Structures are given as C-alpha cells and as structure tokens.
Amino acid sequence: MKLIVAIIKPFKLDDVREALSALGVTGITVTDVKGFGRQKGQTEIYRGAEYQEHFVPKSKLEIAVPSDLADPVMEAIRLAANTGKIGDGKIFVLDVEQAMRIRTGETGDSAL
Amino acid sequence: MKLIVAIIKPFKLDDVREALSALGVTGITVTDVKGFGRQKGQTEIYRGAEYQEHFVPKSKLEIAVPSDLADPVMEAIRLAANTGKIGDGKIFVLDVEQAMRIRTGETGDSAL
Amino acid sequence: MKLIVAIIKPFKLDDVREALSALGVTGITVTDVKGFGRQKGQTEIYRGAEYQEHFVPKSKLEIAVPSDLADPVMEAIRLAANTGKIGDGKIFVLDVEQAMRIRTGETGDSAL
Amino acid sequence: MFRALKLSGVTRAPALLLPIVALSSPALAADAPPAPPAIDTGDTSWMLVSTALVLMMTIPGLALFYAGMVRRKNVLATLMQSFAICCIVTVVWMVAGYSLAFGTGTPYIGDLSRVLLNGIGAHIAKGADIGFTLGAGTPNAVTMTIPESVWMMFQMTFAIITPALIAGAFAERMKFSALCVFTILWSLLVYSPIAHWVWSPLGWVAGLGAIDFAGGTVVHINAGVAGLVTALVLGKRKGYGQDDLSPFNLTYAVIGASLLWVGWFGFNAGSAVGANGRAGMAMTTTQIATAAAGLGWMLAEWVRRGKPTVLGIISGAVGGLVAITPAAGFVLPGSALIIGVVAGVVCFWAATSLKHMLGYDDSLDAFGVHGIGGIIGALLTGVFAYGPLSATDANPGGISGSFAQFVSQAEAVGITIAWCAAASFILLKIVDLTIGLRVTADQEEEGLDMTLHGERIN
Amino acid sequence: MFRALKLSGVTRAPALLLPIVALSSPALAADAPPAPPAIDTGDTSWMLVSTALVLMMTIPGLALFYAGMVRRKNVLATLMQSFAICCIVTVVWMVAGYSLAFGTGTPYIGDLSRVLLNGIGAHIAKGADIGFTLGAGTPNAVTMTIPESVWMMFQMTFAIITPALIAGAFAERMKFSALCVFTILWSLLVYSPIAHWVWSPLGWVAGLGAIDFAGGTVVHINAGVAGLVTALVLGKRKGYGQDDLSPFNLTYAVIGASLLWVGWFGFNAGSAVGANGRAGMAMTTTQIATAAAGLGWMLAEWVRRGKPTVLGIISGAVGGLVAITPAAGFVLPGSALIIGVVAGVVCFWAATSLKHMLGYDDSLDAFGVHGIGGIIGALLTGVFAYGPLSATDANPGGISGSFAQFVSQAEAVGITIAWCAAASFILLKIVDLTIGLRVTADQEEEGLDMTLHGERIN
Amino acid sequence: MFRALKLSGVTRAPALLLPIVALSSPALAADAPPAPPAIDTGDTSWMLVSTALVLMMTIPGLALFYAGMVRRKNVLATLMQSFAICCIVTVVWMVAGYSLAFGTGTPYIGDLSRVLLNGIGAHIAKGADIGFTLGAGTPNAVTMTIPESVWMMFQMTFAIITPALIAGAFAERMKFSALCVFTILWSLLVYSPIAHWVWSPLGWVAGLGAIDFAGGTVVHINAGVAGLVTALVLGKRKGYGQDDLSPFNLTYAVIGASLLWVGWFGFNAGSAVGANGRAGMAMTTTQIATAAAGLGWMLAEWVRRGKPTVLGIISGAVGGLVAITPAAGFVLPGSALIIGVVAGVVCFWAATSLKHMLGYDDSLDAFGVHGIGGIIGALLTGVFAYGPLSATDANPGGISGSFAQFVSQAEAVGITIAWCAAASFILLKIVDLTIGLRVTADQEEEGLDMTLHGERIN
Ligand SMILES: Nc1ncnc2c1ncn2[C@@H]1O[C@H](COP(=O)(O)OP(=O)(O)O)[C@@H](O)[C@H]1O
Ligand SMILES: Nc1ncnc2c1ncn2[C@@H]1O[C@H](COP(=O)(O)OP(=O)(O)O)[C@@H](O)[C@H]1O
Ligand SMILES: Nc1ncnc2c1ncn2[C@@H]1O[C@H](COP(=O)(O)OP(=O)(O)O)[C@@H](O)[C@H]1O
C-alpha cells in the first residue's frame, strides 16, 4: 500500500475528489495547510505595519491506496489539480506498512 | 520506529488519548481534518442552494513509537475508537527512519 | 528523497522558515496541530467546570528534501526551534518513494 | 373613600406603576370620570426607545450571550432558539397573551378583550393620542402618559425575553420542535398569569404588598425556575463532567452580555414608564449593581481559582442586572452597590458550587444566574427600599424596607416559584410524551447545527 | 379654497407626513402666514434616536447580515462595502442629495437651495428652535415639530441604507472602485429623484395617490430592482451552482438581522416623525409582521426541505420588515400578521425557487427579499389600509384600502421599477465601460479580502 | 451685575452647557432665587438614551474595536480590559469621582458633597422632578432640564470610556492587576480633575475661554496622551517589527467601529443636554466629519499603499469622530467636512508614519487616533466655530473662530497634555514598582487569554 500525499490549491479540491472517485478511490483525508514555495504570499498592511505573508493557503490530501493504484492516482491528481500556474503543488508517495479499518478490524488493502 | 497515523471520530479523541497514555505512549500530535469515505457528509441548504458536503470532520492522530509498540498501539486505538458505526476511521503504519528531540538533540527511540 | 516532519512551537515558525530558506529549501507545508507530550496543557475553568486541556498548540512542518539534505535540515530545524524548554518538539524522517510537481509533471528531486 | 381605596391601591399596586399614579392622581381624584388623558411625547419617546432596547436584549443580546457559551457545533442552534422564541412569543402575545396579562379581568387572569389586539389602535383619535389606562373602570386604575400600543409593545419585549432566558438551561440538547411547542404553552399558561398577578393593578400577588420594579419575579425568578425544572427533566448533556464542553467563542458571550447591560436600561429605567427622575435613578442603581456584581464574581473567582475570567465578570454583571431588577426604582445607590456585590458573589457560588453539589446540568446557568439573582434581588428589595423614592402626594411615606415588606417579598417569591415549577413540569411532561423533548444521542454528538438545522459554521 | 387644496394635498401627500399635517393644521388653516412653529422635545428626542437606529441598521446591521452569508475570503470586503457606502452617501447627501430630494423645486426634482447643507443651521434662533417646514411656501407645505437638521439626518440614514442594500446582489465579485463610483451616481440620479417624487409634498408620484409609510418603494423596491439589474449585468459568481459557496459564519448574519430588526423601529416608527400613537402603532405592526414572516419562511422551509434553518428564519424576518415598511402606520395588527405571513412565504419562494428558475445570481437575495418583499408590502398596503389610523380633522375618513388605492399603489410600484431599472442599467454600463465592474477571475478565486484590500481573517 | 457676571460666565463656561443657560436664563435673570426648575421629559428622554449610547460605545463598541485588532491569543483579554474598566470606573465614579468632578468645590477640584452619590436622589420630590443645577450657589450656576441622576449617569459613561481608550496603547502586554490599579488611580487623579477644570462652570481651564463641546480634551487628548506615556513606559511588544502581529479577526473591529459611530451620537448630540436643534446640528456635523475622515484615510492609503483597507476606513472614521467631538455643536457642516478630511489624513500619517518614525509601540494607536485626532479637533474648533450656533440672548454673538480663540484652544490642549503626561507617568511608575506593569515574556508569548484569564477562543 502507498500513501499519496498531495498538496493542491484549495479550490481544486472538488475536482480532485471527483477524479479520484471516478478511479474508485473510496477514502481521502483532507487538511487545511499553509504552503511556502515558489508561489509567494502577499503583503498585508495593517495601519502601516507591513506583514509579509510567506504562506499561502493550500489543501493537503492523504490517500492510502493499494500499490498498483499509486500511479493512476498521481496522474489523476495531476490532471485535475493542474492550472499551469505557479503554486499548483506537489504529490509525494510514501510506503504504508500496514492499514486497519477501525470499525471492523480488517487489515491490508481491504481496510482501505 | 513507526509512525502510526489514525483517523478517528473527533469525540473519541479523549478516549484514545487515555488508552494510549495507559500504554505508555508519551506523545501524540493531533490535527483537525476532513474525511471523505464510506460515511457520507450531509446536505446543507442555504436559501435553496443545496451544497452536498462530501467531507465529515475527523481527527487525525500521529504517534511515533518504537517498532515493537506499533501493534499494541494499533489495537488500543481500535478498541478505544470503535463505535461499530460507519465512519470510525482507519489506522496506517509508516516507517520512521529517524527521530530527534529538538530540546535535547537526542535521536532514535529515546527521542520519542 | 526524505520527508522531514517537524513539530515545533508556533512562534518559532518564522525562525525555522528563515533557517531553511538559508539552506536552500524551497518548499514547506505547515499545519496547525495540537500536541500532547511532556509539556502539559493548562486547566481552563468555565463557570466552575474545569477542563484539563491536554493539548498545546503546535506547528507541524513537512519538508520534502533530497536525501542528502535530510541531516542538515534536521540540524537547522533543531537550532532554530530550540528554546531549551519542555515542549520544543520533535523531528521525524520518513522515506519518500516518489515526488511530482503538479504544474509541470516533473518527478524526483527536481520536483521539490 | 375613593381616595382611601386609591391609597391602599397604591400601596399594593406593582411599584412599577407608582409614579404614573402620582402624576395623574389629581385628575383621578375628581368625582367625574376624568377626561381622556393626553400622552406626553417625552415619556412616549423614552418608552419607544425602551421597547427597542429590551428587544435588543433578546436579539442579538441574549442570543449571543448564550451562543458564546456553547460548543461550536451548537452555536447556530442556540442563536436559533432566541430568534425563534422572539418570533413565536410575538405572535402568541398578539393573539392572546397580552389580553390575558393586561386585560382587566379578575385578580387571577386578564380577559379576552384584547385578543388579536382588538381595539389597540383606538387611542389614535384623529391625529391626537389618548394615554393608556390600565385596569380601566376599576378603582385601582392606573393612568399612563403613553398610548396603549406603546405599553403593549414594551410589555411584549418582556414576554419575549422570559422564555428565551429559559433556553440557557436546556442548551445543546433540546429538540427544536419541542422548544416551539413548549414556548407557546409556557407563555400562555405561566408567563401571562404571573404577569397579571403581579403587574395588573388588581392582581392578587400585587395585593399582597410585594413590590417588583421591573420584573424580578415575573421575568427572572420565573425563567430561572423554569430553567431548573427543564434541566432536571431533560437530564444532563452527554459527556457532562467528562468531555470538554468548553465554549467555542466567548467573544460572542461578551458582546451579548454588553448588549444585555445596555438594553437593560430600557428594562429597568423603562419600567418608570416615563422619562423622569425615577428613570434616572433606576438607571443609576442598575449601573452600579451591575458593575459591583461583575467585580464581585471576578474577585471571588480570582481568590478561589487564582484567575479572573472574562466569562466570570460578564456572568457576574448579568447576575447584578437580574438582582437589581426588582429594586431598581426603590433603592439608593449605596444599597445598589450592596445588592450588586451580594448577587455577584452568590451567583458565583450558585453557578460553580451549588450546581455541582446538586448535580443538575443547567448548561448556561439560567437558574444559577437568573433564578438565584432574582431571588436575591426580590428579597433585598424588601430590605433596602427607601421610602422617599416612591413617595407621592397620596402616599407620602413611599415604600420602605422593613421586616413586613421582606415577608411580602418572600411570599411573592414563593408563589412564583411554586406555580412556575409545577406548571413548567407538567408542560414539559406533556411535550415529552407527545413529541419528545430531547434529541437523539447521535444528534447531540454531531451537534444541533447540522442535525436540526442543516447549517454550520465553516 | 386653501382648505380644499390642503385636503387634496393631504390625500395625496406621502402618508408619512400625515400626522404632522394634522397636528399643525389649525395653524396652517389660518389666513396669515403662521408664526414659525416651535419644536417638540419629545418628538425631537425620538427622531434623534430613530436616526441613530437607522444608521445602526447599515453599520453594523446590514454589514454583518451580508458578511455572514459570504465565504470566508470575502467577509471583510463585504463589510467594507456597507461601511464605505455609508461614508460615501453621507458626503453625497450633504453636497447635493438632500437638496435634490427635499428642496422644494418642482414635482420632478428638488432644488439646489440646500447644496452643502447651506442654511441647515438656521433653525437655531438664539437657543430656541424652529420646526421644519417641508415644501415651505407651497400650498402643500408640511410643518414638523422637529428641527430641519434632525429631519435631514433622519433622511440621510435612509439614503445610506438603500445603496448598501443593493450590495447584496453583487457580493463576492464587484470591483471596489466600481462600487464607489456607482454609489455616487446612483444616489444622485436614482435615489434622490425617486425620494422627491414620493416624499416631497409636491412630488408627482405622491400626487398619484399612492401611500408609502416608510419607504417600501423608495428604499426597498428601488434597492431590490437595482440589485436585480446589477446581478444580471455582472453575471454569476464563478462556480455558481457547482462549488460550495456556503456562508462562512452565519453568526454574523444573525447579529445583523437582529440589529436590522431593532433598528427598523427607527425606520418605521420613526417615520411617524414624532413620539406618538402612530409611532406606537407602526412599531406594533412592524414587530408582528416581522415575527410572522420569520415563522412563515421557517415553516415553509420545514415543510419543503425537512428542516427549519436559522438563515431561513432571519431571511423571513427581514422580508417581513421590508413588506410592512410601506404599510406600518396604516394597518391594524391583524393585517400586519397577514402581510407578514405572505411576505415570509413568498420571499422564501423567490429566493429559493424563482431565482433558480430565472437563473440569475443575486448572491444574497437583494431582489428576492427587498424587491419582492417591497412589492408585496406596497400592494397590500392598498388592500389593508385602515382609515381611522390616518384620519385627521381635515381628512376625517383617513386612507382606506380599496381597489382604487390598490391601483395607485401598483402605479407607484411600476414607476419605481421602470425608472430604477433603466437608470441603474445605464449607470452600470457606463461604469463598466470606463473602469470596469467586475474583478478578475483570479481575484474572485483568491477572494476580495486579500486582492482588493490586502487584509484577511486569520 | 448678575447679568454681566452671567455673560462672562457664559463666554467662559464649557460650551457644552450653553443652550441650557439660554433656555433657563429668564428665570435666572430674576433677582429672587429661582424656583426649582422642572425637568423636560423630551430632554430627559434624549439624555437617558444618550447615556445608553455612550455606554454602548465602551461595551461592546470599544471592546470589539480593540479586540478585533489583536492576535487570536489576546482577544478575550482585550475584551476583558474594556469590560473590567467599565465596572471599575462605575464604582470609582460612584464613590468619589463624580463628586470630585462635578461637586461645586473650587476652580481646581470639586468637593466631597456627592461621595457615594449622597443626595443624588433628592431630585425626586413626591413624583415630580427637579432639574439639576450645576455649580449651584455660584454665580456661574448652570440650570438643566434633566434630573441630576441622569446628568451623573451621562457623565459616568464619559468617565468610563476614557481609561478604556488608553487600553489600546498597552494591548497585548499589560498585567491585568496593574490595569485595575492604574484605572482606579488614573480616574481619580487625572480624569476627575481635568473634567472639573474644563466642564465645571467654575473650572479654571473653562475660565481661560477654551471651548470643548463634548470632550476633545477631557476624553480624547487625555486618553491619547496617557496611552502614549503608557506605551513608552511599557516598551514594545515582543516581536514588534519582526513577527506577524496581524489582527485575528477584523470583523470584530468593524462591528466595534460601527457601534462607536452610532454611540457617538449620544456622546456628541447628547452633549447638547437636550433634544433640540443644537443636538441635531451636533449629530449632523458628527456624521459628516466621520464619513469624511473615513474616506480621507481610505484614499490616503489607496494612494500611498495601492489598496484601500477596511481597517483604514474604520480607523479614519474613528479619527473623525474624535476630531469633531470638541467642535460638534459649534461648527457648520462645511467646516465639519474639512475637519473630517484633515483628521482622516493626519491620523493616517500619525498611525502609519509618525509612530514608526518615533519608534514607540502604541499597539492600537490610542495616541495616533485619539491623541492626534483630539488635538486637531480642539485646535480647529478655534478656527471654525460659527457664532450664531451658540448665540443666546445673553451672548448674542455666540462663539466664533478667531486667532484669540485658537490660542485659548491651544492653551487648553497644552494644559491637558502636561498634566496628563506627568500624572500618568508617575502613576505608571508607582504601579510598576509595586505590583509590576508588564506580563512575563512567556505569558506574552503564550497569550494573555490563557495565562491571565485561563480562557481561550476555541
Ligand atoms: N519541498 C517541499 N516540501 C513540502 N511541501 C512543499 C515542498 N515544495 C512545495 N511544497 C508545497 O507545495 C506548494 C506549492 O509549491 P510552489 O513551489 O509554490 O509551486 P510549484 O509546485 O508550482 O512550483 C507549497 O505552497 C508547499 O505547500
Ligand atoms: N483510503 C483512505 N485514505 C486516506 N484516508 C481514508 C481512506 N479511507 C478512509 N479514510 C479516512 O477515514 C475516514 C473514515 O472512513 P469511512 O470510509 O467513512 O468509514 P469506515 O472506515 O468505517 O469504512 C474517512 O472520513 C477518511 O478521513
Ligand atoms: N511520540 C510522538 N509522536 C508524535 N508526536 C509527538 C510525540 N512526542 C511528542 N510529540 C509532539 O511533540 C510535541 C512536544 O513534545 P513534548 O514531549 O511536550 O516536549 P519535548 O519534545 O521537549 O520533550 C508534543 O506536543 C507533540 O505534538
């Protein structure tokens, strides 16, 4: 099993979710995060005090999938989340040693 | 060392924390996340516009433990977080290559 | 490639970001998390009902780096985030199997 | 004879109405039926404003005060309770509540002469206006310098806030449909009768000699006791005493308490039913008691828990507002200071110790603050009332604190508690048996916002 | 002759002014020019308060009502719209708007006599004060018991809220610079003329016999229709009908709606221009219609969607406030109840069905609530008006509902819609062609808070 | 002789009181001691309302304005500051502050005749009311048409808001216990004396000929300067100029600024001490200056920084409110427009440039907005005052702007600054040496909500 970690632009979340559903992915966990990268944040000014906001809001998706689905999932995310503009985000793939469904105690791929 | 990643129902957080403390786990990091899975979200209606909320609020726990504690920890989480109802969540186990305690610079299991 | 996961005190975020930038790290993803550890939370009292707050606010950083940068990055974080007081946090290192830049489709180290 | 009757009428009438009696007594003392009195634009202006202020106490004041103390998942549902009660009671009051409370009727209940506010606009006579006479045709009749529509509206806002206060006791677990039905029944069967007993010039509780300037019994003890009963009937919230039930955002509660404070000037100074010195004095004592109670609670907490809290100081302030309510126009500033300190400290004890000792879950302390605060105020009014403030030509001594007065106050408190507790209990049981009072465990867990209303804070 | 003229003047004058005419008619009926009338402190007090209440309707009331319905990224920008409109219209009104609306002038537009509020302080005569005469020097002149500065301020708050209401239609996508320019133009070219037509005693629409107690046409239909046109010209928000555009925090909307309700007492009861029985009656009908409409929407939603929502009940309440506005001083409580229920249910249908059928994106239902609610109210005023409430010595029958009155009301509605729609459309096109109306797609996506104002909620 | 004295008394008395003098002068001019004057219900109504409005300025107005500008971890502590100051000053004022400020006394301080508000209820004479005479028994006595309790309450709300304003300067780092002690001392030793100097008819600063309609010196310059001193004594916040100190939720600040605006009608128009044309004019100039200042700041920022901000427009508006305060009843609308624009632009410069140049950390710009705005207003009042607005029979020319008047104004400003700065500095040092002024570095880092009050926003 693999854990796909994708950092995307927040407003692309629904597109990505749909693309993954179409692929048969049944579970996603999403976190609101702040990203620092090539895309720079903005300058905010409050009563003359400038704050360089280095971080931009992003959504982080974590998707555990059977190993063979890793590549199609990556591809689906790339297609759905791409705007061609800076700040589109990254996908990382990590190895998962074990998985368990809390409700049933099932483990392995069937836990996903 | 392993990193146990557990996605659970938010109101089970205290139960799980206690169960893990009882096991001797000394550190947990918790994130508020939104989950998409078998448990469907609800429909919200604002002035006649229906929004299908696909995500339900969940808590994500990350717990780094010495490898031998991985199984008992999984088991403890499963027992504490289980309600028997859909949406109870998942546990994933990842391998941790290295750990360090920032305060002391200790590494390895003693950093946990 | 490695994924460095660091849990630090929130007010150290800017220091760490600067230290990492200095090292040439170009991307960081930050999440607001709640930590349970040696540092205990506080007791909150609302109309006589005491709530033991077990969690303290922390920032979690995730930084994907080429493998050879893992050690210098850990060191930089340690130096920047250290206050010498309890609750300074942890650094974990995980292995990343694959990475992709969504905008370009680049993979591997050049995706970072 | 008429004078004598009048005099005793004054002594026993709800103190709320004293100054008006005084102002109009020359006219009333005449043998012939008095010409319809004209309104006073200054008094009418102040009462229009007071009405707006008291409405503001409920929405958004109380709505925010309560919503600021619940968990995130119940914030909107809690706001909904105050808002819906405001709408429901408006209609109930218009349909029958006002008539039952302020129609002349008998000592026990008003009449149906004002059902659907029939005749309420009759005071407009070709561009001029007639002042309202409460209890018209009876020897105790009280003539006002404001038109009836303004009196009816002012009283409506009291009728609105009372059931809205109860909601603090059952927050986070009551069914919305149950709330709607209970509000209608309670307003008609508990609020209107008690308002009549205490505030109608022929009401039997008024006749016992108890004084209540702005509603310590009718509003606060009444709501507090109904809240206690509801909390007991409903049972505790899931996770009470174990889970973290801490407030989502106390900012809302601070806004709410502040607007309650400001709006309470309409409640208390408005109960002078005119823009006069008595209104000024009522405003003065209200301000002082509130501040003193806020500080009282804060200091008690600082001593006992090591920290002064913002929830504490605002809770104390509300407790002080409650306690000064029955006393506002009868006491001197120094007495108000004492009433405030006592209310702050005792309400602190009620909400933080008594509640836990007795083990009920009055979520937002409707009883601990309104019930206890109201009782303190009602009783201390009997101790601290200072005669010259309510003296009139007809009653040159005014009403002064005395043991006898204290006993009268205690009687009125006891009657209110008894009727309110019994009637509320029965109504709750009826609602429980028919449509059910409490949400399911799952709904409670997921939160009322999503499960009852399909909405949430993002 | 003068009397006859006067009489017809009364029949046709904006009903808003009736009671004043009545009160002052003995003086006016004399042959010699009347001595400058004195002010009444009670009436002045109430109008000062009403002015504060109506200002509070816009800031923070409407600002919060709207900000509570947008997405997190646009909350501050939405607050900014109301606040900036408040500042801009204040200056516009002072420079020329008031003079154009309430200067005597012709039936079609005022004059320039009060440009920069020239002479507005003349009512202060060595410590005493002269009441204002609207349309001074004309046979229809209306004399008030308040000084001109107070009248001007009261009217200013109406001029402020009207364009601020429009903002609901273009929320989340209009350029701030465009908003500023559009507001200036619209205030001068749409609001001031229509206010003159309807509220000046010589206005030509007033002359048609339509009555509008507190601004159903001038304020609400006007704002609603302008909103509809803006929504159509601007086009839908990105992602409309697809993305989750759900509100960030309805708490703000509830605070806003509550303050609108409270402030509306100044709007409607203040339109009696005095602290009298008519103000009391207007407050009464306002309260009842609002509550009824809140419940109407809530119940309709409960039946149709299975859940009562807090956004629903507050939207209904605002719809009820709108609908009762033209009727407030003319109808009995029972009629107010009916107007409220109808408004609640029909606005529910407009905002949830009609909008989707027609496919425009009126983000926060400026048209669905204010346009539709205003039309309902204006028409039903012609049905339910109850003569005795507006009867005076000069016009002993008052204004009663009748088919003829209904037709007059419909005429006024039609005229307002036609002028407002056409003028708004042209102004929008001008702004679009010069500085552009809509933000870029990227700005819309990132949110107006950051991109237009460089700020955000943390 | 009496007349002559009276006349000079008028010229020098705080302008605030002029209209009352005028209204009552016939009575006063008589040789025999005048019969106790009756109150006017319209005036009393307006002053009751004004009191409520000014209280609303502090809670929740100012509380939210400030809380909206701090970081999340200090929001509740900031709300707590305003609320606790409100409670504390209420008690201080009641115990001695009012007596020291408005007891007759000497030109330098009042007396102890009203300690614990002794005798404040004496105006109620068997149901009728006596108007208050300020400085009774002195030739400069000023008779009012409202009872003393209302005057005392109105003034109390001014005494409350002044120290609450200071809190903006030391936000996010002052110990709560220090704040409590400092507030008590400052209120008695700085506020009450200055109020007496400027507003008592025998006060020595009033005698210098300076005019201050509603408190430009006593309230705003006073608070601003005390704030500056506090900011300097306390030092900067940790991380100032480096870390992100950006506001948590400006929504609160917008609500706060809006309520300040609305409430300021009570502050300024209420300072006419009656519901009359002068109140109407004060309301008018207040509205115009505020709007102009909001736009002034916004446009300056738009030009200088490329974006108009919501924090900017609300800050400007507050600056305008401050600047028009001393001028409100003395100037024409056109002058108000100029005062507003100047205040908006100069306060923008003070808060964004001056502060950084001088390098102090006045967290929420108590000095930059209230100090600078107050100075602008006080000085421009001497330029723009328009005689006829304050003309009376006794003083037919009224007070007009002139170089001499400007100098008088500057004197009053200078005196206020000097006393306030010196006394505040000494008090702060005393508190610092005894209980300490500033929280520990750890507490500052973790936030005052948790560390001082044990609460937080979830
Ligand atoms: N090395 C990295 N480790 C962790 N997160 C990263 C890394 N690089 C980028 N990110 C995340 O991806 C987001 C987008 O990256 P950015 O460099 O701005 O754009 P792009 O990927 O298009 O070059 C960042 O905001 C950050 O959240
Ligand atoms: N494949 C997955 N990858 C990541 N997170 C998942 C995955 N499947 C489920 N989850 C998380 O677990 C939560 C519970 O899963 P769900 O399918 O609803 O219930 P259950 O596990 O009881 O079948 C989801 O809301 C989601 O946050
Ligand atoms: N074993 C662990 N797994 C995951 N997170 C941990 C673990 N131990 C600590 N943490 C995180 O690190 C934070 C700091 O740890 P703590 O034990 O309080 O201090 P220290 O690291 O200085 O001993 C915790 O609040 C928690 O978020």
TrEMBL record, chains A, B, C:
| Segments forming a coiled coil | none
GO MF assignments: ATP binding; enzyme regulator activity
Per UniProt, which keywords does this protein have?
Answer: Nucleotide-binding, Phosphoprotein, Transcription, Transcription regulation
Pfam families in UniProt:
P-II
Q: Where does it sit, as one GO cellular component term? A: cytosol
GO BP annotations listed: regulation of nitrogen utilization
* Modification O-UMP-tyrosine, positions: 51
What is known about its subunit structure?
Homotrimer.
User: What family does the entry list?
Assistant: Belongs to the P(II) protein family.
What is the official name of this protein in its record? Nitrogen regulatory protein P-II
Instruction: Name the source organism.
Output: Gluconacetobacter tumulicola
UniProtKB/TrEMBL annotation, chains D, E, F:
Q: Which PROSITE patterns match?
A: AMMONIUM_TRANSP
What is the annotated localization of this protein?
Cell membrane
Matches recorded under Gene3D superfamilies:
Ammonium transporter AmtB like domains
Keyword Lipid biosynthesis recorded: no
So where does this one cross the membrane? 45-67, 79-101, 150-171, 178-199, 211-235, 247-267, 279-298, 310-330, 336-354, 366-386, 406-428
Which segments constitute the Ammonium transporter AmtB-like domain? 46-455
Q: How does the record classify its membrane topology?
A: Multi-pass membrane protein
| GO MF annotations, alphabetized | ammonium channel activity
Query: Which family does the similarity line name?
Result: Belongs to the ammonia transporter channel (TC 1.A.11.2) family.
Q: NCBIfam families under this entry?
A: amt
Name the UniProt record assigns to this protein? Ammonium transporter
Organism, by scientific name, is Gluconacetobacter tumulicola
